[in-house]
Amino acid sequence: MGIRNTSRGYGRVARGFHWLMAVLILAAIGLGLYATSLPAASDGDIARLFGVFSIHKTLGVTLLALALLRLGWSLTQPRPAPLHPERRAETLLAATVHWAMYGGMILMPLSGLLRHASAPGDFARILWPFGQRLPGLPVDQTVSAAFSAMHRTGWILLALLIALHMAGVAKHRLIDRDATLARMTGRGDLPEPPVGPRLPGFVAPLLALAIWSAAFTFALTRVPEATAPMPTAPAPVSAAEWQVEEGTLRLSVLQGASPVSGTFAAWTAAIAYDEPSRTGHVEVSIRLDSLSLGAITKTALGPGFLMAEAHPRAIFEADILPEGADHVARGTLQLAGAEVPLTLPFTLTITGDTATMTGQTVLDRRDFGIGAGYADEGTVGFGVTVDVALTAKRQ
Ligand code: HEM
Ligand code: HEM
């Protein structure tokens, strides 16, 4: 058998792609599952977790390049003709599974890459020189969660397809005892396939497309609540109101000796501020499950820490008061089932109808009963630094 496919079997290039990618795809699935099962409790854990994810992602993008080359090659090749053309349903099933596996070979790494490139916070890098973001793709928790759901549903579909494919090969080998496997190994005599009815070429690719569309639609209906738009809290007082245009809400904490920091993607602030008296009121509502804190996000949201399921929001309600040339917001923070007084010093600059503010405060996690299982600072520091920066427009 030469380089190209014939009606009797696959050529050397198709066979090379097939076996190389079969091994690498199974390895990518194994590595992905292994990576998501790793603990993230200590610095050492996190270093290992990032290491495994980096290998997974780098292997994944290599597979994307291979899949595109393979698809390009296979579209220029004849397909070996079915050995049992009279078994129409079986022939259609095999062809649909082949096309759906091509779909998976492209959509799996693509969804992984898009999830990676849109994820806020710290993450394991792809080991390549092309940067970690994609032009035009927003860095946004909601977008990233959608691609994550596709990736996590997609691998299950791909694994099912591979299992079906392997079961089909076993059936040909053990029950039909025909040359199906030999056509892909290139060993043995390959018979000329019988002439028989042929399916129109578009049926199997269309079915494969329908299967992937259904899987991804299902995945998107299961994207966690974090992606639902958040209702804006009502403005509490009647002084001039300000609408937040953009902002970041960041927290940092020491884990062992090294600082970890992350951001909340979904929060709203209702701000009223009266310029002559330099006083006002603010109510900030933060959806905890929009936190991304790198590899330890899940732990941070879980029991013992922020308990996001039982207490999905944190609310900071405060009066704004002048303090020297700057301001403070003095009020209370409700978090993880506790309500604790909190003061946030901040600087405010108003130019025309635009206000920019930056502020920083430090909370003690013990006041909120967070991380009560870590009674000393060896693993998680007591102080949690909160940084806020926002730009608001006068309404
Ligand atoms: C053929 C290629 C790929 C396959 C078969 C694959 C498979 C998997 C599997 C099985 C998981 C575990 C899912 C779970 O535990 O629910 C996973 C997770 C993950 N993969 Fe991949 N992957 C591929 C390519 C990529 C690429 C190219 C990237 C990024 C550049 C990537 C990024 C991720 C991430 C970030 C996760 C963690 C799950 C999440 O947070 O969404 N993957 N992958
Ligand atoms: C390791 C177990 C595997 C075995 C024994 C195996 C065997 C075979 C055989 C015998 C064929 C030819 C079938 C025919 O002509 O109808 C074939 C084709 C094919 N296999 Fe596999 N395969 C395996 C894994 C995989 C994996 C993991 C993938 C990718 C997800 C895959 C994707 C394909 C595709 C797309 C074709 C169609 C031919 C082409 O366009 O390359 N196989 N396989």
From TrEMBL:
GO molecular function: electron transfer activity; heme binding; metal ion binding
Any single GO BP term: respiratory electron transport chain
Protein name: Cytochrome B
Principal cellular location given in the protein's record: membrane
Signal peptide: none
Needed cofactors: heme b
Database matches in InterPro entries: Cyt_b561_bac/Ni-Hgenase, Cytochrome_b561_oxidase, Di-haem_cyt_TM, Lipid/polyisoprenoid-bd_YceI, TTHA0802/YceI-like_sf
Transmembrane feature ranges: 17-37, 49-71, 91-110, 155-175, 199-220
GO CC field: plasma membrane
Domain called Lipid/polyisoprenoid-binding YceI-like: residue spans: 241-393
Topology of the protein relative to the lipid bilayer: Multi-pass membrane protein
Domain of life: Bacteria
Keyword terms of this UniProt record: Cell membrane, Electron transport, Heme, Iron, Membrane, Metal-binding, Transmembrane, Transmembrane helix, Transport
Organism expressing this protein natively: Paracoccus zhejiangensis
UniProt similarity note: Belongs to the cytochrome b561 family.
Subcellular location(s) per record: Cell membrane
